[in-house]
Specification:
Length: 750
């Protein structure tokens, strides 16, 4: 029943609005039917008792009308409401005209006064007002206060009419209509409550939304479907550097356009999604990104902006590092010159375009003075020297030249093509001579010395790789020649270089396979008494035959293998001396040669200490020969090493004296005991006065420095006689002894 009366509605949607009307209608009709039932039944019984059957018909008719009204409430509530109104008017009229007691007839008109409220409930205000106006007619009629017109043929007055009518009016006004109004007011109360609750919830959700909007951790704009900015949170205002009022109401497109130059002009203001990914740089160099644009269910847009400076910085750095990586694949980091790979690619490209009959010179340069610069001024200046050298090369080369850094200190330039080789060489000479002899680097005068190798390219002759190789071969022979002029590539040089590569590789395996041995050349005094000997290394290679130390020692020095060779020599000499001592033989001091690289070797003293200790060698039995040139360069370290050797009691000889450039002052600072006059001077005794003069000067110098003088390479009596005549003290050479094998020297000593 409750459901049927729709008393349980909880919300006031339009559908529910219709429901309370039906509910109210049914309440009036049903309560009317139920409450009036008793009255009507009594009326009917009274009427039958006095045979007034028309009254029964009218009462039944009213019941039927009301029942029909109830029936229609479900599907046609308006019809039901109209039936209710009709029933009220019909009842009023019936009472007015068919009850012939004036006082009771008036109740019919009072009955009618309920119609405006019924009309308002079910048909709205207009009909209600119309009926209010219409009801003036019965009101005025009532104002006359009778006598009222009665239609007597259908008189409905019964003995209990007074009770029936009063009951009807009472029930209708006191029960039916109030119940319906209560129902309506109940619905309105609920609606009001619901409205109150909804708006409270809305307020909460709105506050939450604002909270979220402001603190979502991003700069957010809310835009209408037309692309107008509706709201902007604090972060968005700060990112866009604008006040809230300046932004709200503006179109997003016009607001962003002009900030960056990459905003597509044709972006449709209503398709804001297209802004996604767009970014711009602010005046203070921040990168702002439109991170994403989302269309909401209401077709508005949420635009999220982000300060992506960090990400862009990383991206930029990454991009730059990729570019640098790509650059360094084909360029040298120090000079930014193309590297070997790039040079080869360039030659591949340009060689086929070479004009027939012309020559293109390739010039390889090797910056030899770098070692000196590194040692004297440090590696930083060395690096700068390479940079200055590269810059100067680029500056001095003829226009149209291509310049590359082949490897560490070797550069290669490709000059433009020339009509003849002579012309090409002339151009190279011009370039070479224009090169400064010194650079001023960080306040230091840094000497510039470089070797030059040249290869000439003619159309269709050889591959780029072969051209580069030829250039390197020419450079290598220029370096060996020690003359300062450029060397043109030749096949003989190439063979020489190939051999030096073979030797370099051979040394490594020779050390492993014990292919090296020592021979000993005696040194004698003026009476030809053996006073010492010099250990000299020998290499008998199974593949290359006997190789002279004069050939493989410089190669070992260049290849960084001299350390191993020297270690081998020192140990062999120690073993040799130990054996002689153990055999109880007289053993004169044994000299061994240290190369220029050995003398600056950091572990030199430790090595000598360790070996002499291991074999218990008295220091007086070991002598070290150091070439004069070996002392130039890193003098400080060399002197400290020599000093350490002297302190330990070893003696030191300057080898090949006269070929270097040691000044007297420098020489006096070296802790030396012997000066060995170079063989090249001894060789020319009796032929060249100048050599004899030099030898005399060296012997006096030795006297001056309290050093022993010794001549090497003495081959005949003439040389001996001259040397003795000028006071040379010791002698070494084929004239006395050739270098002897260990057994031979042992026999000699016995
Ligand atoms: P060096 O130190 O000047 O050695 C003397 C060289 O002259 C030796 O050549 C020796 O055999 C040669 N010689 C000696 N007397 C005469 C002579 O009367 N006439 C001629 N024409 N030559 C004579 P070798 O053994 O071929 O050594 C050549 C160079 O190789 C040496 O010159 C030395 O600088 C270097 N060397 C030899 N052994 C070693 C070594 O163990 N270590 C180092 N670092 N260098 C060594
Ligand atoms: Ca020597």
């Amino acid at each position: 029943m409750f459901d049927w009366l729709f008393l349980n509605d909880n919300a006031l949607s339009p559908a529910e609005h219709a429901r309370w009307r039906v509910s109210a209608l049914r309440i009036i009709l049903i309560s009317g039917l139920v409450l009036e039932a008793a009255v009507a039944l009594h009326v009917a019984l009274d009427a039958i008792a006095i045979a007034a059957y028309h009254i029964v018909v009218v009462v039944v008719a009213f019941y039927l009308v009301l029942a029909i009204g109830v029936f229609h409430t479900a599907k046609r509530p308006n019809l039901a409401a109209a039936i209710l109104l009709f029933a009220v008017y019909a009842a009023g009229t019936t009472i007015l005209f068919l009850v012939n007691v004036d006082e009771l007839a008036k109740l019919g008109i009072i009955f009618i006064y309920t119609t405006p409220i019924i009309a308002r409930l079910f048909f709205g205000g207009r009909l209600a007002v119309a009926l209010m106006a219409f009801n003036f007619l019965p009101f005025f009629y009532l104002l006359q206060n009778g006598p009222f017109v009665h239609y007597l043929p259908l008189n409905m007055t019964l003995p209990g009419s007074h009770t029936y009518l009063q009951s009807l009016v009472f029930l209708f006004f006191n029960v039916c209509v109030p119940l319906a109004v209560f129902r309506v007011l109940h619905a309105f109360d609920k609606s009001a409550l619901r409205h109150h609750q909804t708006s409270a919830a809305l307020e909460v959700s709105n506050a939450q939304y604002r909270e979220f909007f402001e603190n979502a951790g991003g700069a957010i704009l809310l835009c209408s479907r037309e692309g107008l900015i509706l709201q902007a949170n604090r972060m968005a205002l700060s990112l866009l550097d604008a006040e809230h009022d300046q932004l709200v109401g503006r179109s997003l497109a016009s607001c962003l356009r002009g900030r960056g130059d990459r905003l597509p002009e044709q972006v449709d203001t209503e398709r804001l999604e297209e802004f996604t990914g767009w970014h711009w740089q602010t005046d203070d160099e921040r990168q702002i990104l439109v991170e994403y644009v989302t269309r909401t269910a209401q077709n508005s847009f949420i635009v999220v902006l982000r300060d992506a400076s960090g990400v862009y910085m990383i991206k930029e750095a990454l991009k730059r590092s990729h570019e640098r990586e790509a650059f360094l694949m084909y360029h040298d980091a120090l000079t930014c010159l193309p590297n070997r790979a790039k040079l080869r690619a360039h030659l591949m490209e340009t060689l086929p375009l070479q004009e027939a009959g012309k020559v293109t010179p390739l010039v390889a340069l090797r910056l030899g003075s770098i070692r000196h610069a590194n040692e004297k001024f440090g590696n930083g200046i060395g690096d700068l020297l390479i940079q200055y050298f590269a810059d100067e090369m680029r500056r001095l080369l003829p226009p149209g030249s291509y310049c590359a850094r082949l490897r560490s200190i070797t550069f290669l330039a490709i000059l433009p093509s020339y009509e003849s080789p002579t012309e090409a060489i002339r151009q190279i000479e011009r370039f070479r001579l224009a090169f400064p002899q010194e650079f001023e680097i960080s306040g230091n005068d840094v000497h510039v010395q470089f070797s030059t190798g040249i290869a000439l390219a003619r159309q269709g002759e050889v591959s780029p790789e072969e051209l580069i190789r030829r250039c390197e071969v020419a450079l290598e022979s220029a370096r060996r020649s020690k003359e300062d002029s450029p060397t043109l590539f030749s096949e003989a040089d190439a063979a020489l270089i190939r051999r030096s590569v073979d030797i370099e590789l051979g040394i490594v395996s020779a050390l492993r396979n014990h292919e090296f041995r020592l021979v000993y050349q005696p040194k004698v005094d003026a009476n030809r008494q053996l006073v010492g000997m010099e250990a000299l290394i020998r290499w008998q290679s199974p593949t290359m035959g006997s190789i002279s130390p004069a050939e493989f020692i410089p190669i070992a020095e260049r290849a960084g293998l001299i350390h191993d060779l020297t270690s081998f020599v020192i140990e062999e000499v120690c073993i040799f001396i130990r054996r002689l001592i153990d055999q109880g033989q007289d053993c004169p001091p044994v000299a061994l040669n240290l190369s220029a690289i050995d003398i600056v070797r950091h572990d030199l003293i430790d090595l000598i200490d360790a070996l002499t200790a291991r074999y218990a060698i008295p220091p007086a039995m070991l002598e070290f020969e150091i070439t004069e040139t070996g002392l130039i360069g890193s003098e400080v370290l060399a002197i400290s090493h020599l000093q350490a050797l002297k302190t330990r009691g070893f003696s030191i000889a300057i080898d090949d004296f006269g070929t270097g450039y040691s000044s007297l002052s420098k020489l006096s600072s070296f802790p030396i005991h012997k000066i060995k006059i170079d063989r090249s001077f001894v060789m020319r005794i009796g032929e060249n006065d100048k050599s004899e003069l030099i030898i005399k000067a060296i012997v006096s110098l030795a006297n001056l420095l309290s050093c022993v003088s010794i001549a090497e390479g003495v081959e005949n009596e003439v040389q001996e006689r001259f040397l003795k005549s000028i006071g040379c003290e010791l002698f070494q050479g084929y004239y006395y002894h050739k270098p002897l094998e260990v057994q031979q020297i042992e026999q000699l000593l016995q």
